[in-house]
Each structure stands twice: as C-alpha cells, then as structure tokens.
Design brief:
The protein is mainly β. 10% of the residues lie in helices and 54% in strands.
Length: 197
C-alpha cells in the first residue's frame, strides 16, 4: 500500500523540479486569448419639446393643446394634448405639484402616437406687475405606451416646465359667456433615454 502511493508522489516531485530547472518548457499564454471587457452599448438619447396653450375658467386648470417636436431616437412632430391636475390652491396660485398624461400624435403617420406620464414639483411661482402668473417646474417623465411606429418605444427622463397664466377680459375670451378667462401657455422640455424593444 505504501509503495503504490510513494511512486506517483516521487513522479510529481520530479516533474515539478524539472519545470523549475527549465528542463520542461511551459507554454506561454497567447495574448489574444486574454478576455477583454466589452463596453456597454450606449442608450440612445431622446428629447421632446412641447408648446401648449389652453383657455379655461377659475375653477380648474385649463386643458391645453399644442404642438410637439422630437430629436434623437424619435424624429417626428405633431399635435399634442394633455390631461393635467395640480395639487395646491389653483385659484390663488399656491401650487405644489403637477401630474398628468400627455398624448403626442404623429404628423407623419396618423396611426402613430406616444403617451407620456409626467410628475413634477413647482420650483418658482411669481406674479408680475401686470398680474400675469409665471411658473417653473421640474420633474420626471416615463413613456407609458405607443401606437403604430412607436408601439415598442420605451423611455424615461427629466422634464423642465416654464409657463404663464394671463387673464383676458371676458369680451376677448374665446369661451362664450366666460366671466373669467385665464390663458395658460406652457413650454415643456423633455430629456432622457429611450429604446425600441
């Protein structure tokens, strides 16, 4: 029993000694076999610019419509509409946050559209000497869904908002028999990353 274990042990010791003495060459590692890290694929940038305008009354935030254009992953433009609500006191211009969904319809394909969800905090509120309300907000957006060419579009990012509320005299208001006529004008800048799944 001891002899059978001793012979291979001697062989291992002899081979190791010969390697150390340089009598048995060790094959070098080929440089091209060394694994190199693969850089991550950059996520395409996506940006939307949205100009909106709406008329309403003092009881609620005016619904707005407008136009949009996009650059980056999406190259398109068209009509825009939204459903938005503000937390705080709308009538007294004490606003806290704004939340809503925005529908972007493509002008190049009637079957294509993009739906965005937006959540923002107001960062600046002031009233100028002419009584015009000025506001700014910052927050985040996510692409909820798409149709047509944008059915598989996914993305998210940040949004910056700037706008005004100006009050027209009733005789200048496009809403019939309005006693108050706030005109809401908004510019939204969306910047983020997107992809097509």
């Amino acid at each position: 029993m001891k002899k059978s274990l001793w012979i291979p042990t001697v062989a291992v010791v002899l081979v190791g000694a010969m390697v150390l003495a340089g009598l048995i060459a060790c094959a070098p590692v080929a440089p091209n076999l060394i694994a190199t890290p693969i850089p991550p694929t950059p996520v395409p940038a996506i940006s939307f610019t949205l100009h909106q305008e709406g008329y309403g009354d003092m009881g609620s935030l005016p619904a707005t419509r407008g136009i949009w254009s996009a650059d980056g992953l999406v190259q398109d433009s068209g009509a825009a509409s939204d459903i938005t609500f503000i937390t705080g006191d709308w009538g007294n211009f004490q606003w806290d946050t704004v939340h809503g969904t925005v529908l972007l319809a493509s002008e190049t394909d009637a079957q294509s559209s993009i739906s965005l969800k937006v959540d923002s905090d107001f960062t600046n509120l002031n009233i100028d000497e002419d009584g015009v309300w000025h506001f700014e907000a910052e927050g985040n957006f996510v692409i909820l869904s798409g149709t047509g060419n944008y059915a598989n579009l996914r993305g998210e990012g940040t949004v910056k908002t700037a706008g005004t509320v100006e009050f027209l005299e009733p005789d200048r208001c496009p809403i019939p028999e309005a006693s108050f006529c706030p005109v809401l004008k908004v510019v939204n800048e969306y910047e983020g990353k997107g992809r097509f799944d």
